Amino acid sequence: MTQALIFDVFGTCVDWRSSVARAVAQALPGVDALAFADAWRGEYQPAMERIRAGGRGYVALDDLHLENLHRVAERFGVTAPDTLNAAWERLDPWPDVVPGLTALRQRHILAPCSNGSIVLMTRLARHARLPWDCILGAEIARDYKPKPEVYLASCAALRLHPSAVMMVAAHNDDLVAARAVGLRTAFVTRATEHGPGQTTDLTPADDWDIVAPDFIALAQRLT
């Protein structure tokens, strides 16, 4: 029986692309805001991979985002204020997320299992009104998804066997890693996370325990 659901956040729960682009347009007028947001996000995995591979000790995502911001700003030929980094704390939720989480919370413990830091997830939750019961994820594991330690640390913090925890994500690779260490899995499609031309994660890549079009449908499947 599933007792807790843990969630990928960037892309699955919130629309990072439009939200970051909005902040970029305000801070850096004249820059192609969507291109800048995509480039900033493009530095996300390479920055974490250096840590996952052991080439660098754990660094919180807030700090990686700031390093990446200045790297991308230089590429675009502009100087970005450090305050722009707070854009990642003000991402808007997809329309189904808050009502879906509210329904799910009636029967399940809910928490993010994100690569974001505890403070980033906390501030984001306050902005987006995400009704988490607690904040889990990369910082308690001192590593980054899809390393198995991140999923297992979240289960351990809840004192639940992985089989009693379901990972919810719009990214197939996240679910592959979660299933490999015994968690249940739910795929929720976010076909425009990367914009109208998205080509990845449009369909489930495996027979996940649940496949749903949104969080409201997910809640209905779990009642």
Automatic annotation (TrEMBL):
<dbReference type="InterPro" id="IPR023198">
    <property type="entry name" value="PGP-like_dom2"/>
</dbReference>
<dbReference type="Pfam" id="PF00702">
    <property type="entry name" value="Hydrolase"/>
</dbReference>
<comment type="similarity">
    <text>Belongs to the HAD-like hydrolase superfamily. S-2-haloalkanoic acid dehalogenase family.</text>
</comment>
<dbReference type="InterPro" id="IPR006328">
    <property type="entry name" value="2-HAD"/>
</dbReference>
<dbReference type="InterPro" id="IPR006439">
    <property type="entry name" value="HAD-SF_hydro_IA"/>
</dbReference>
<dbReference type="InterPro" id="IPR036412">
    <property type="entry name" value="HAD-like_sf"/>
</dbReference>
<dbReference type="InterPro" id="IPR023214">
    <property type="entry name" value="HAD_sf"/>
</dbReference>
<keyword id="KW-0378">Hydrolase</keyword>
<protein>
    <recommendedName>
        <fullName>(S)-2-haloacid dehalogenase</fullName>
        <ecNumber>3.8.1.2</ecNumber>
    </recommendedName>
</protein>
<comment type="function">
    <text>Catalyzes the hydrolytic dehalogenation of small (S)-2-haloalkanoic acids to yield the corresponding (R)-2-hydroxyalkanoic acids.</text>
</comment>
<dbReference type="InterPro" id="IPR051540">
    <property type="entry name" value="S-2-haloacid_dehalogenase"/>
</dbReference>
